[in-house]
Amino acid sequence: MSLTYSAGSLVAARGREWVVLPESAPDMLVLRPLGGGDDDIAAVFPSFEEVRPAEFAAPDADDLGDQRAAGLLRTALRVGFRSGAGPFRSLASIAVEPRTYQLVPLLMALRQSTVRLLISDDVGIGKTVEAGLIATELLAQGEASRMTVLCSPALAEQWQGELREKFGIDAELVLASTVSRLERGLELGQSLFDKHPYTIISTDFIKSTRHREDFVRHCPDLVIVDEAHTCVAADDVHAGGKSGTSQLRYELLRRVAADQNRHLLLLTATPHSGKESAFRNLLGLVRPELAAVDLEAPAGRAKLAEHFVARKRADVRQYLTKEDGLADDSLAERTAFPSDRWTKDEPYKLAPEYRALLDDAIAYAADRVQTAGSQGKREARIAWWSVIALLRSMVSSPAAASQTLKTRSTAAIARSAEEADALGAPLNHDAADTDALEGLDVAPGASESEDAGARLLELSERAAALAGQQGDAKLKALVKHLKSLLADGYNPIVFCRYIPTAEYLAEELGGAEGKAGKLGKKVHVAAVTGTLSPQQRLARIEQLGAEGAGDPAARRVLIVTDCLSEGVNLQHHFDAVIHYDLAWNPTRHDQREGRVDRYGQKRDQVRVITMFGEDNGIDGKVLEVLFAKHRQIQKDLGISVSVPDETASGVTDAIVEWLLLHGRQGSQETLFDMPGVQGSLDRVERDWNSAAEREKTSRSKYAQRSIHPQDVAREVAAVRAALGSADEVRDFTLASLNGLGALVRDPRDSSGDFTAQVGGAPAGLRDTLAATLGNRVVEEDREIPFRADPAIARGEAALVRTDPAVGALASYVLNSALDKDALGPRPARRCGVVTTEAVTSRTTLLLVRYRFHLTLPSRTGEKQLVAEDARLLAFEGMPQRARWLDDDAAAELLGARASSNTNPQMARNTITRTLDNLGELTAHLEEFGNQLAADLDASHRRVRKANDEIVRGLKVVAQRPADILGAYVYLPADPAAAAPSASAASVTTAGAVA
């Protein structure tokens, strides 16, 4: 007859100890190794395999450690926890250390039975991490079983990597390029959303009606929408083009959001696109009633605050401080955003031959527009877009000009003026909210027929002949700016408008194989454009980032188009931006700069250079009319406000008209004197001021107030108490590496960083580190940087408990401590005796592991979980007459240092007497566990306090017996001075709970 084991109990099978999980049945036990993770779970059949009750073995008196043993074992144990007992189930298992401000959306989510949030934090604050935290938590609690991320194709690979590497979610990519392969693996009648529980869907995917309908029918219960502002349209926009795509997505999301039981997270840094109706439509996806709620009334704003979080960097740069209403700064966290963005506009003048070419091109363009104007509206619009393409490529580079002049205009196939605008505008105007930048960096074409005319071909040949620094003064100016940045230690990104320009610059700057380029022998240059797939782009960036990694004199220059201006994170490898081609919308520059000026950037000052042609007739006016206003608003508000797209395109159209009428030499006053231009500029001023005022109002009126800093502080303190602080992890990593034979170099500066070479460490540790940091790093005994900042580059380790390298180190230290026969150095031991001046009477410190059986209510029924916690308990005297110390006094013993050596025989006798009498402590340990369970119950209820339904049935039970992992006795250095008892403030009697 087989025994029945309750969840959380300890059993022995297959030569090791296991914890019984709630999924077990009498005839099949689901077990997790003691101290192991979910990847180690196994099923055991008691009818076929021996399973017996087990108790954790007591420490061995013959295996004594030194003064560091207790602290190292405690931290190794806590780092290994992957099933925390607190209300945040996911924090113990993810591979990222969230900033405290990133817990705010998570707390908001846990207070809703169905999570509906619009997360609109500023660029670079970490919306992906915030969404990942919520998703992981909902999946861990059983509140969600399937998940989809809807994003642009260019960001799908990055989302997949973030979810896998940071949150352990292995999501399948559903792209236009992968759908056919995925569908071939389906059974008859099966949806790919049934087969793959976690998916990342590109926005291109929903353009197919069949796929769109399949998605709606089998939509997961958790949907995350990235760049959500691209999925709504204002009520007054016309169908077709970008707005038509937005309307298509909006209708899809309306159907998805209609299921009120579906979790929905909308992410966007720009919830306001300049149109109130678009913002209201976005809110309506969160909750239908928010679309019409009175946001001027306090009750309306309070309702919105439950679902809307929008913060800028200044709000979170320093968080949980006295300024936030806390009593002190003990929990304060300072986030390392770059504090300054150095910007400079750098003019250049065209070479004489290039000026002549541009003048001839302008003359041709003016003739073409005038001729087409008499041929009909369709012909006029085709000519207009062809002319803009010609002029923009001409001021970009000789390569872009030559290619454009030989290529047919995209708008030339249009059958109407409206169709010509729909085809020409995306390629020639830099819209702020372009929903997909794919394909927009190609040379747009200026010819209106299949074969370019003789005049265009002649201009093309002249442009091609001007390539190189002698004929291209713009390239020459770029070389000067790059050399200056490189000399100052920067690694810049050069943003171009067109693929031919980027390839031309890479060829001119990079040098031939084996030869130094124009920037020097140690400068590595690479180009990334829309000709590469998103996966190839990321691979090339990583390849460039690795170039010269071991050489402090090596530098990197990345030349890119706007295919990388949104979403892709570049802050780990680059720290400066050069706008080689001036965009026609300032928001595009913000998007470019946001790739490096974001959390994780190690430079305190990011440099930005904007190049503009002061004599090409276009750049100077765009800079003065659009960029000057944009910068003034940014200075006044402290945030960037997008210029409405229609406003920006109206201004640039007026500039082109002026150029065609007057050529390059016309005065600035001529532009403003043109009929209708002043009125257009006045509208720009009004529209932009209106958008700025709306943004300012939304930041103040709708600021996140549903979660108070005190609420966050309380939970952060509880998490750190259970899982450990950053300082504890750093001290553990440093001491363990030293104890295991690694060569550690600690500069002892304010950064907290250090490096280690692990060539002298045990083979088992080297093998586990190789799996996380790379074989070459370990095999070649390279220096491994350990960073205090959790935003790290590839090949580095973060000094946080969830970093894979720190986890591997903790696992090795813990396993070697538990196995006294393990070969090699063992820095942590399960018992020890220390003579120290830190105590005045015999004091014993216990490291105790508690297991809890949690019953968590959810929408789908109760979920049974087993979790662990490790606590320090200390008492004075012998176990039979224990005087228990409080938690702070127990923790202080970890810092006790030996004042003299302890006689080995005396130490063995002392620890033996303590271990033989541990049974006297059982009652107190059980009562302490019951109190911990009650505290955990209260914590779960506190986090979910806004919703009674999601706490009804909540239960936390401590499993017995607790495991005594370590016992450490501290003896006073001067026994004659030992006090009979400690102060009443820090001592409780044997029966009370500390």
Any chance you could write out the topology, listing elements then pairs?
Elements: E1 10-13, E2 16-20, E3 29-33, E4 42-44, E5 52-53, E6 64-65, H1 69-80, H2 103-110, E7 116-119, H3 127-140, E8 147-151, H4 153-167, E9 172-174, H5 179-184, H6 192-195, E10 198-202, H7 209-217, E11 222-225, H8 241-257, E12 263-267, H9 276-286, H10 298-305, E13 308-309, H11 313-316, E14 318-319, E15 333-334, E16 340-348, H12 352-373, H13 377-396, H14 398-406, H15 417-428, H16 454-465, H17 473-487, E17 492-495, H18 499-510, E18 523-528, H19 534-546, E19 555-560, E20 576-579, H20 586-593, E21 605-613, H21 619-637, H22 645-662, H23 668-673, H24 677-701, H25 709-723, H26 726-739, E22 743-745, E23 754-757, H27 763-773, H28 775-779, E24 784-787, E25 797-798, H29 804-818, E26 831-836, E27 843-856, E28 863-876, E29 883-885, H30 887-892, E30 898-900, H31 904-916, H32 922-943, E31 955-958, E32 963-972, E33 987-988
Parallel strand pairs: 6-26, 7-12, 7-13, 8-10, 8-11, 9-10, 11-12, 16-21, 17-19, 17-20, 18-19, 20-21, 24-25, 26-32
Antiparallel strand pairs: 1-2, 1-5, 2-3, 3-4, 14-15, 22-23, 23-24, 26-30, 27-28, 27-31, 27-32, 28-29, 29-33
Kindly list the characteristics that best describe this protein:
994 residues; alpha/beta; 9-stranded mixed sheet; 7-stranded parallel sheet; 32 helices; disordered C terminus
